[in-house]
Structures are given as structure tokens and as C-alpha cells.
Design a protein that fits this description.
The structure is a homodimer.
Chain A: E1 3-4, H1 6-13, E2 22-30, H2 39-47, E3 59-61, E4 71-75, H3 81-84, E5 85-89, H4 96-108, E6 118-124, E7 131-138, H5 144-153, H6 185-199, H7 203-217, E8 237-245, H8 246-256, H9 260-278, E9 288-296, E10 308-316, H10 324-343, H11 347-363, H12 369-372, E11 379-384, E12 392-393, E13 396-404, E14 413-420, E15 423-431, H13 440-456
Helix pairs in contact in A: 6-11, 7-11, 8-9, 8-13, 9-10, 9-13
């Protein structure tokens, strides 16, 4: 019976009925030519066909984890497929709106800890004939980036392939090694805990390194105004999702000599500004976003290879500026500066700095912390690379893949996006109470892009 | 801000992610002539139409109740109808089976304590064109019997009436007075706590009264063998439901000179016997059922009026007997004896005895209790009176009304039934893990009735 390392169990301990710690994904598929009205049902049947479930998807906590202390993973021999793989339907008229309502409900309910910590819904009833698949898996099992990668591994580039297996039937790969750490922010809290532990003991050592980096590089550690996005959260969620053409965003980036990520952040900035103005809740100070990034790095003194390193930067969103182009400019500058500083650091230093920046996330389960502390940043914006080609699952073409991430006390809104051929798929998850009318952010994102296109299209 | 009495908050305290303490109901309706495919949607719109929500349905705990201690009710001014009243659909082929799967999922998830503790799903997509309504409400707000009555109050005998209001828009009635205590078993745990409190203080006083009653009446306090139905439960549920013609059951009762309730218990007995034989888990000793009953009683020395009093009897189910008629005979005898004893008791004595019999239910949250203690009875069978006439909701005819009750550690199966014109509607709720293939009990119930009909039909 494998011992569950504290870096896993922290996600179980931190979870309460108000803070489910699972990550999810909502995929859309266009069924292959000639498939009938029972296509979703056939997919469900195919997904339940084999008993050869990979160990990861048979694992659950040995005992309910309710307090501090060690726990163990138990691995079930048999998986109750009727429970884990669910056939669902959207009600009439079967628009994306109804699908998003269902996704919001599913993502707001807790996984049963007596069973392997995952669920998959195959959804029919969309008016345009597409099929949706909503999956969720607990963060103690895989982080958000790994979850999205697992979903991708189930797909094939071949539209004729009919032997695609769902993620739980795929042969298991090893966990991400520390050389290629995950882009997932919660994974970084975990990695930070690992590294800080490796170095000296606990947080003080990390703090010391970070302070050194800050002094040497003359960094002003990011600050963020308190907003309605940074208070305690309730148990219910609201999810919204939409796709944008990568060409549109690339065009703005090219004309304005910025990056795709800068333009995405400028869309987020414009959208948040418009949304908070509507709510009469825009802070005077500029808001900031935490953005996980991947960097090519030099080795460090401990002989650790550079390779691809992952860190977190906090970018000024310039939400105090009225003009979209000005916001893009400031975002690009802030982002460049943060990356430059990280480029001069060793992987260990980066991890330590990232861990310090994210330490407040780890503090959120402490009662009262969020109510009084200033947030370390206002929103998390993650961009997870996706497939570059058209992908298929047993002939059904992938037509959307929206990450559904985690919100916690202090971070009531999370924006995660992923790419696929030609499109950026954006998933917004928020606390249903602290982020009212979350879906309006979709229109504001579009408006912000359209404004940038006027100057840079 | 009203203080929440401990008899309410115990249901919040006792609740964990494994033991949701809400009660529910699944109703089926035949839409009126001429209604179109958007009938369910129209019902949802009508249910969300008024903001005049009764205070009960705007109430939630002031702070999440996580430990012993007092708490308060808060009453929201505005209810987020999009959250509480949900439009849902069963997937193809839209049989009752798919509806029961959905109900199982809904009943297994916890209510959000930041919001008024209720939800209502209006479900379309059944192949026969019927509409289903699944409602759930937390037991700290109303008990199971009151919940079923609330659902009934929304209905009209007039098929032409189009002004029916859903339960949350109905004017609120006062809580059940102690003179007409509820038939709900969990309500009785509550009532018992009340009465025992009134009398002397805590459990010892109740125990003393009960011991006296037992001595005076020479009662053998019921015992029950430990079965697979009496262990710890997980978080997932399975729900099954079916209707039986009251005429069939009455015919057996009449011919065998027993009561309708005796025949129902004989059906339960035969079904449990067949089910446990299949599972290779039938105990040698006879199993027993706890049955809430309503009695007309004499007054007591404290000047309390008799009126309709409610108590709990434990009936021998005679599951060790092979012959259905023999089981019915023993059940009838056991039931008569228990009622006779209660008939000689004062209301206070009945409540005290009932409370003692049910005290183990109140003990279930104590860690380890269920694993080692002998169960006080093997299963709870409640019969809640329903409407005697055909009932309608805005023209849609009620065609089924299945209670969805609570399971807890030690009581992994609950059977609750209610009547309507011509039918008994039976709802079986069980822990998905401890009660595998729960739906098979439906066939076994039918087989048990058919066997009795051979002798007494």
C-alpha cells in the first residue's frame, strides 16, 4: 500500500465542501459521418468495455483524510464503471449555454473519496449534433496540466482510427520529473514545497533565497489590490468557455511586436476592466495576474541541468488604463521584465521565487487568512499547450477542449486556456457567488480583442 | 437572526461527505393534452417566476457548521433561482432506468451550505413523454414527512387549475406541533431528544422510562442480526422506485386478515430474503424493520392530550422462514404485539421508548460505533400517507411520487413509500457500495407479492 506523500495529501487536506480540489476538462466532438443518434451511448459502452484500468485510475485514499497526518493510497481491483463513466444529456434547446450550466454543476460537486477520484460524463442532446465529454480528476492524483495531457493522449491524428482508448485504459506514464516541472500553478505549490524541502527544511530557506534574488535584481515584488475576485468563495461554481481563432490573436501580436501570451493577457485585462466596471468594483490600482511560464535555462551550481524550467511570473494587467493598446504595452513590458529576471536565475532560484510568490495559495486553508491578507495577485491565467493537428477520438473530431480549473478562497476566478489547431480554447471557472454573471466575461474578452484589432489587426 | 436549535443543527453536524442528510422526492407527471416539447422548460420558467419565496426556502446556516457549538439561521433576501431550480434531461433511450441513474447521482451530492438548503430538478427526455421532478431539501429544514407533504400541497385536485405554486412559493405553515409529531424516523430522533430534554435532562432519564416500560410490559427489546445492510456507508447512492396497485395489496391483506402495512412488510421481507440469498449474505436469525406508526392514544398524567401520537415499532421480518405466508403471519403477529404495547403507553412513554429504540441512529456519527455495535434493526420502512384523489400540477397529472430518504452508517438501505389514488409508490435508497444491485429488490418485491397472491389473492 503506497504511502501518500504530503505533497499529494495536501490537496485532500485543503479540500472542504467549499473548495473541491479537482481539475476538469470539457471537450466537444463532431461525430463521424454516418453515426446515429446513439453515438454518445456507443462511446459510453466503448469506454466501459475493458477492465484493464491503469493503476492511477483505480487509486483512492485508504481512509477519508480529515485531519493532518499521513495517509495511504489504496488501489481497487475493480472499477465501478457505471459510476465513473456517465451518460448524460443537455436539456432543450441544447445550446452551449445548457452545456455550460451542467458543467458548472458537475464541477461544483465533490468526488467520492471511497472510490477512485475521477468521473467522466459523455453528453448528448446538443442541438448541433456535437457530443461533449466532461471529465474531472482529483488534483491529488494528477495536476491540471497532466490531466489535460492525459485527455490529449487519448486522441489520434488519424480520423479513421477506431482503436482510441480513454485515458483510464491507456498505459500509465511516469510522473513528471523535476527537470520538466508542470505548468500547473497548484503543481508549482507542490514543487515549491518539494524544492524548499530539498534545500534546507521549510519555508524560511525559500524565503532567504527569494529575498536574495529580489535584492540582487532590484525586483519590486508584485502587489495586487483587493478585488471581489479575492475574497472567500462558496461551494457553487459557474463555468464559461469559448474559442478564439489563433490567427486573430497572432495578427495583433505580430503588428504590436508583442507575444501571443501578451495579447491573451491584454484580452483578460480588458475583459476584467469592463466586467468590474459593470459591477462597480474596479480598483484604482492596477490588477495583476499570475502566469505559469516555461523557460529554457542555464544549469545551476549544484550541477542541475537547465532544460525546460517552469516558473511563475506575476504580470501587471494595467487595468487602470482606459486604452487597450496602452494596457497591451504595459503588460508586454511587465512580462518581459519578469522573464528577463527569471532568465538570469538558476532553476532552484526560480522555483524558490515561484514558491514564495505562490505561498499565499498554500495559506488559503488557514481560517481568516483570505479575509485579511492582501492577495498576491488577482487572477491566475494559465496557458497549456495543446495539439497542433486536428485530433480525433474514434472518428469524432475534437472541436473544443476547455480546461476547468480550481478556485479557492482568495482566487475566485481562474482562467485556463489551451490550444488546438487554429484555436485558443478558453475556460473560465468562478465562484458562483463572488463572480456574478461570469459568462459576461466571454463577450468582454471578445470586445477587448476587437479593440486591439482596431489598432493592430 | 434566529438561533438554530440543537435538534436542527444535529443534522448539519451529523452530516459528512459520506452521509448527506437531505431528503428528496421523485415525482412523475403526465403533461396535459396539447403541451409541446418545451413543457419542462415552461414549468421551470413558471417555477422561477415569482420572487416571493417563503422564508423556509430562503434559510441557510449562518456559518458553515463544522463542529459542536451553536449556530444560527440566516435568511437570504434573494434566491438564485437559476441555481435552485434546474432544467435537466435524461439521456437516450429515456427509460425510467436512466431517470433512476440521474436521481442516484443527485441524491448523493451535498447541498451547498452557503445557500438555502434545497434544489429542484425538472427533467425532460423520458421516452414516454412524461416529465419528472426531483426535489431535495436538507433535513435540518424539514423532516422527510413534512417534505413529502410540502410537495403534495403544491398539487391541485383540479386538472384545469393553472395557478399551482411550487412549494417554495406557498405560504408557510407552522412547524408540526408535538401533539402531531412526524412519522419521519429522523424527526423522531429529534422529537426524542426534545422529550427526553423536557423530562429530566438527557439520555439517562429516557433510558429509565424505557426500562420501566419494558419491565412493566414484559417486552423483549428487539434485536437484529448484523447484515451487509448494517455497516459503514460510502458517499455514492443508488435509487430504485416502482409503483404497486393498492388493490393487489389490499386483496392479500383482506384474505389473510392482516393489514396493508403487514403485507408491505411481508413484501419487504421476501425481497430482502431473496436479495440476501443472491448475495450469499442471508443471516440465520430473523431480520427486523423499524416502522414509524401513528396511534390514537389516551392522555398522560401530565395532562398532555392523547390525539394522534407517533411512535416507532420494531417488527420481526421473519426472513428466516422460507414460506411467504408464514412470514406474513409472523410479521402480523409481531406488529400487533408491538402496537398493543404502545397502545397501553402514554405519549411520553411512547416517545421515550421510540427514542431509546432509535438512539443508535443518533450514535452513528461516533467513529467506530457502527463497525462494532449490533444494529437496533436491519432496515427502516416508512409509509407516508399521500393524496387519495388524482392530483395535478398546472394540468400535469401526478403519475408517481417516490420518496428518496437518508442512509447512514449502520442503515445502508431505506425503504419509504407513499400512497396516491390506486397506487403505492415505493422508493428504495441505498449506499451504492454496501447494497450492490439495489434495483433487483424491485423484482424481488414483485415476486414476494405474487407469492402471497397465490395463497391470498
Amino acid at each position: 500500500m503506497p504511502f501518500m506523500p504530503p505533497t499529494d495529501s495536501m490537496f485532500l487536506l485543503a479540500e472542504s465542501r467549499e473548495h473541491p480540489m479537482h481539475v476538469g476538462g470539457l471537450q466537444l466532438f463532431v461525430p463521424p459521418e454516418g453515426s446515429g443518434p446513439d453515438f454518445a451511448r456507443e462511446i459510453v459502452a466503448a469506454m466501459r468495455q475493458s477492465d484493464d484500468v491503469s493503476p492511477l485510475f483505480r487509486r483512492h485514499p485508504k481512509a477519508p483524510v480529515g485531519s493532518l497526518g499521513n495517509t495511504w493510497w489504496a488501489t481497487d481491483d475493480v472499477v465501478d464503471f457505471d459510476y465513473h463513466v456517465r451518460h448524460s444529456a443537455v436539456p432543450r434547446p441544447g445550446r452551449i449555454r445548457e452545456l455550460l450550466h451542467l458543467t458548472s454543476r458537475w464541477h461544483g460537486s465533490l468526488l467520492d473519496r471511497h472510490r477512485p477520484l475521477w468521473e467522466c460524463h459523455v453528453v448528448e442532446g446538443l442541438e448541433d449534433g456535437r457530443i461533449a465529454v466532461y471529465s474531472k480528476i482529483h488534483h491529488s492524483m494528477v495536476d491540471g496540466v497532466a490531466a489535460i495531457k492525459l485527455m490529449q493522449r487519448a486522441l489520434s491524428e488519424d480520423p479513421e482510427a477506431r482503436d482510441c482508448l480513454p485515458p483510464w485504459l491507456l498505459p500509465q506514464r511516469e510522473r513528471t520529473e523535476s527537470g520538466t516541472r508542470s505548468l500547473d500553478p497548484w503543481g508549482m505549490v507542490r514543487s515549491g514545497a518539494d524544492v524548499v524541502g530539498e534545500l534546507a527544511g521549510l519555508v524560511p530557506a525559500g524565503l532567504k533565497i527569494a529575498q536574495q534574488v529580489v535584492r540582487d535584481n532590484d525586483i519590486t515584488l508584485p502587489r495586487a489590490p483587493k478585488t471581489i475576485l479575492n475574497g472567500p468563495v462558496g461551494g457553487a461554481r459557474r463555468f464559461a468557455a469559448q474559442s478564439w481563432s489563433i490567427d486573430r490573436i497572432q495578427q495583433v501580436a505580430k503588428s504590436s511586436a508583442t507575444t501571443l501570451n501578451d495579447v491573451v493577457l491584454a484580452m483578460v485585462s480588458g475583459a476584467l476592466r469592463a466586467y468590474l466596471l459593470e459591477q462597480n468594483a474596479l480598483p484604482d490600482e492596477p490588477m495583476s495576474a499570475m502566469v505559469p511560464i516555461s523557460l529554457a535555462l542555464r544549469g545551476d551550481s549544484a550541477g542541475r541541468e537547465g532544460g525546460n524550467q517552469v516558473g511563475a511570473i506575476v504580470v501587471n494587467l494595467a487595468t487602470d488604463r482606459e486604452n487597450g493598446s496602452t494596457r497591451l504595452e504595459e503588460i508586454s513590458y511587465s512580462s518581459k521584465q519578469a522573464k528577463k529576471i527569471m532568465g538570469d536565475m538558476t532553476p532552484t532560484q526560480i522555483l524558490a521565487l515561484s514558491a514564495i510568490q505562490m505561498a499565499p495559495l498554500a495559506m488559503t486553508p488557514v481560517p481568516g487568512y483570505v479575509r485579511y491578507a492582501r492577495p498576491p495577485f488577482n487572477v491566475i491565467v494559465s496557458n497549456v499547450p495543446g495539439p497542433k493537428e486536428e485530433m480525433y477520438f474514434n472518428g469524432a473530431r475534437l472541436d473544443g477542449m476547455y480546461p476547468v480549473s480550481i478556485v479557492t478562497d482568495g482566487q475566485a476566478l481562474n482562467i485556463t486556456l489551451t490550444s488546438r489547431k487554429g484555436f485558443l480554447d478558453v475556460g473560465l471557472i468562478g465562484c458562483r457567488r463572488s463572480v456574478p454573471h461570469l459568462q459576461r466575461l466571454l463577450q468582454h474578452l471578445e470586445d477587448a480583442l476587437a479593440e486591439l484589432e482596431k489598432s493592430w489587426g
